[in-house]
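Title: Comparing notes on inverse folding

I've been comparing how different people in this forum approach sequence design from structure. To keep things fair, I'm posting one structure and asking everyone to reply with a full sequence. Here's the target:
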């Protein structure tokens, strides 16, 4: 069962119907769209509305600003949740270093968080088709170890809409670790979309959660800016939203 918070400005309804969802119930301001396979609960949060305190652990969340700013990335997420993507095997793919412009264009289209500043950028290619992108921070040396010990962060990983690259995340990370000699890799999983099981499957350990972040959202462009303090004053034509925070995962060689 897909649960969508009713709103006069809810954009994805017609698109969700095109995926085969049928409206089976309209009650208490919620639109229920049923689908026999891959049932999920999804909650639409209109702009400027806080996440309800009673949000369930297994419900996925779409903020209006994220949909309006990066609709293709949201569609990619939902296609993945529904497991309706075409499967490509990672062993048939080639990992290559890519430039900033290539990584930025891909992540702004297929990752709900968009592109962020990074140091290492990799593309996963299947028969020369750009299928997935992974970006990493610059490695840092830990002081106090008897041998050189380096840490880095996996910043982004995204796959082209309509595809699932089996083993693609693991292959991208393995290439990065082999090339850089990093011993300690950390990353964060967005609690509004995932429990991070894909990280645990390849050896990451859950080491805790981060507190929710509060953002200023431009009401015209729908771009987010992290606020230093939740109560920080907003500039004109902006509103405030908060997320659920992230899960922190660590992989140690």
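Reply #1:
Here's my take.
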């Amino acid at each position: 069962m897909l649960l969508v918070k009713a709103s006069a400005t809810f954009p994805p309804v017609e698109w969700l119907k095109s995926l085969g969802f049928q409206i089976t119930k309209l009650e208490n301001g919620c639109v229920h769209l049923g689908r026999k396979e891959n049932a999920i609960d999804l909650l639409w949060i209109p702009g400027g509305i806080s996440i309800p305190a009673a949000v369930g652990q297994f419900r996925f969340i779409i903020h209006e600003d994220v949909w309006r700013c990066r609709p293709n990335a949201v569609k990619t997420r939902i296609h993945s949740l529904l497991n309706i993507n075409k499967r490509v095997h990672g062993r048939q793919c080639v990992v290559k270093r890519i430039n900033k412009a290539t990584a930025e264009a891909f992540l702004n289209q297929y990752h709900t968080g968009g592109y962020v500043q990074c140091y290492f950028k990799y593309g996963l290619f299947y028969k020369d088709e750009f299928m997935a992108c992974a970006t990493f921070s610059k490695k840092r040396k830990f002081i106090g170890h008897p041998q050189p010990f380096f840490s880095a962060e996996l910043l982004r990983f995204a796959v082209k809409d309509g595809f699932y690259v089996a083993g693609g995340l693991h292959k991208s990370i393995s290439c990065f670790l082999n090339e850089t000699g990093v011993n300690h890799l950390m990353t964060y999983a967005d609690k509004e979309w995932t429990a991070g099981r894909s990280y645990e499957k390849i050896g990451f350990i859950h080491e805790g959660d981060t507190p929710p972040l509060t953002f200023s959202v431009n009401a015209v462009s729908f771009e987010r800016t992290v606020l230093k303090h939740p109560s920080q004053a907003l500039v004109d034509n902006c509103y405030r939203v908060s997320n659920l925070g992230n899960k922190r995962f660590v992989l140690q060689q």
